[in-house]
Amino acid sequence: MPTPRTRKTASADTEEKTPTDTDTIEPAESTEDKAADADTETKTPEAVETTAPDVAPLEPPAEPEPLPEPPFLTTAQQLLPATIGDRVVDEATGEPPADPDSVFVPVPPHGTTFRCTARLIEHVGMGAYNTPATRLLMPVGAQLTRQQMEKVVARLHAQLATTE
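-> structure tokens emitted (164 positions)
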């Protein structure tokens, strides 16, 4: 019959430490210390409940920053369509301006830049079926060159001539 295998034990060059050695033996931890350590290890941030305050804070919430102003529309492609619509009216009244020359004022007293004083919209037919639509032609405060201003004023004069 074969002999059973045995495990090798610690080699002879390692010695067991005894209490008589110069090393000090640490006292065994009490069961209370172990229980306290276990409690701190098991507590996680999710287990701790947060409560809302019973009263509102004294300071009002911070106001959001205001949105920056959009840049002025200055180029002809941004302001004027290729063709001005069939009927141009002031949005506030719904009628064409009575005095087209007063719609634009020069920015410096004798400058070449003009500012629109009324919000002008145009009624046009769009698409294959000429679907009626309203679109913004000129916002209040839009700055135009002399040529752009003259184009809009000429259209307003032509419109007034056909309605009279």
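Residues 146-163 form the longest helix (18 residues).
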